[in-house]
Amino acid sequence: MKATKGAKALKEHVARLSDELEQLCHKNGMLEDTNALLAGEAAQQQEDNTRLREQVSTQTARIRDLEAALTQRQPRDRSAQAADKPESSAGARRRMYGVGSGSLAIDKDGLSRYYGDTTLSEFFTQLIPDGGVNNMCHLPDFQALNLPDEIVTLFNAFPLGLRNRPFSITVFSSFLPPRNKATEIAEIFYDRYGCIYGPVPREDFTGLIDEIYGTSGEPNAGGVHAHRLALFFAILAIGHQRSVDFTTSAGGGLNRSAERYYVLACAALSLAPLIAEAMAASVQTLFLVLCYLGCGTRRGCEESWLLIGVMARVGFRIGLHRDGEQFGLGTAEVKRRRHIFWELYRLDAWISFANGRAPAINLADTDTKFPEFEGEPSLMPYPYWKYRYAAACLWATTRLAASAETPSYEEAMALDRKIRTFPVPAHLHASLQGTEVWSWSKNPAVAVQQYCIVSDKELSLVFLHRNYLAVALHAENPLAHRYGDSVLAAYRCATRMCFALRDLYKLHPRIVSSMWYFWSGIFSSCVVLAAIPIMAPGCRTPTCNLAQCALENLKQACLLYQEGAAVSPQINGADILRNLERHAETTFRAYWSNPAKFTRMPPPAVETDEMGPLGEMTVTHAVASRSHSNSPNPVASQVSHMRTQRPHSDPLHGAMQDFLSGAYGDLPAGAQAMGAYQ
After folding, report:
1. Would you call 364 exposed, middle or buried from its count of C-beta atoms within 10 A (0-12, 13-18, 19+)?
2. For residue 225, what pLDDT band results from cuts at 50, 70 and 90?
3. Contact at 8 Å (CB) between 572 and 527?
4. I need a surface site. Which of 35, 265, 471, 531 has the fewest CB within 10 A?
5. Where is the composition biased (Polar residues) (predicted)?
6. Does a structural domain hold residue 440?
7. Would you state the pLDDT for residue 115?
8. CA atoms of 173 and 408, how far apart (whole Å)
9. Is the peptide bond between 595 and the residue preceding it cis, with omega within 30 degrees of 0?
10. Residue 272 located in a structural domain
11. 382 lies in some domain
12. CB 510 within 8 A of CB 247
């Protein structure tokens, strides 16, 4: 290559390198500028972070100071907060909306009994019964029943049973009735009891009959498990119990037969200890024994409460809370276990309500499905409806009532709407006051189911409203109070409940007279109606006198209760209601004779003031100590009631707040609905 050409190529190469160097220098400058900018932003961010940390530290110290000041102030302001702002404590661990935590009785020996916010009214009369807080179980008259010592020994071991199993099951053979008699009594059981409760499908009884009587028809207890034999006796006990016609003098001696089979059922269950041989029949037997106590004697309420806990534990032990389908069980067995579980759950929830205590079964811990119903929803039978209602509404109401945290009024009203709008199959609609579309069935079993639906829904509603009612009735104008809706709701509950049972009793007195828990609702409804003219005799709407309407309905309800009490095992409540009726009328008339100068009348003097211990104060009663019952000097038993924190001069006010319980009813003519009842 020539020198001139080589120099030219070299110059071009140098020029190209110079351009690249210039570009690199430019990029380097840009990078240096970017780094400087980022360094400035980092410094600013660091400064901002430091400032934010200082602000957080300052605010944290301020919050701690405020919390300390609030802690010092709360003891002084607690009473005022409860009275003036009842809604401010929603979610608080302690109930502060004007209603306390229930009623607690403790005697000198430490024997105690607690009834919570939702306790049925009649149970409060047993808070301090004669002889203290003990003696609340049903004890049969063994001498009159003429039972052998082996049976008595086994009965006394109920429900857990004897561990060593000292007796043979053949001890029960002589008490087995002829097959046709057993079948006859079982038909009464399913006709008058099975219409409400269904823990024992007919297929189970058919299997029992075949096991006990075989093909020969002669009874033999030797080939039957003790718990299945106990179930057989329990069916006969309730069948005999329901065969009694309380409306006539005939058939009164049948109670002894019922009592004998009840003892035999308990004894047979004790022959095989629950700790070792629990099965579905164990739960079914406990269920029927509990219902026998509930239907036949009020003294068994505490025993029933304890038994439901045992039932729940046994149910969990045998897996009733888990759906049988996931274990590959047969279709019939899956359906059977579902029915037993939902019967158990519903009964547990209602007994918990009646005693104001938390249930034994938490629905969140279960996955048992409903028994399937393949027909039209409008034709759904009562058992299928009640299971769904128990899960959708009764569960929510139970949790709301049993929770240690105070629910807001808005939560209660939302649940109220859910209960009232829960659909009912058309064929189970009942004829209630002011309606003409539906009517009571001429079939006693269906009519009782209609009333059970009324009771299921309306008793749930009154449990929601009665504490709020107690607070509202202290106001100058209860209907203008924040809880005024509850005043109307409670009035409607009581009125419609009374009229519903009145109509049902006229149509089917035989079956209704044997169900005291129906009458218990009337007792509680009467107390609700009495509360309005006693606590707020001037309560009225723009178009009617609500207190006067409540008093008039109270008189009719008391007459109904007295008529039922004449043939009901529980007759003591009639005296209480007569005293309430007289006091309500006296107070109402005294107020309207001169409202400006009205002075509240003292409660009526009675030999035993059933309502005195039910106020918001601690009252001392002379009750003999259990360990010194023969002492000439009775010892004091204290009853602490924390239902209301607002003082008032009339101790009957506190009694009303503890007694408020009922169902659901129409307003008087012209009354204006408020809030959720518009």
Report:
1. exposed
2. very high
3. no
4. 35
5. 626-642
6. yes
7. 56
8. 58
9. no
10. no
11. no
12. yes
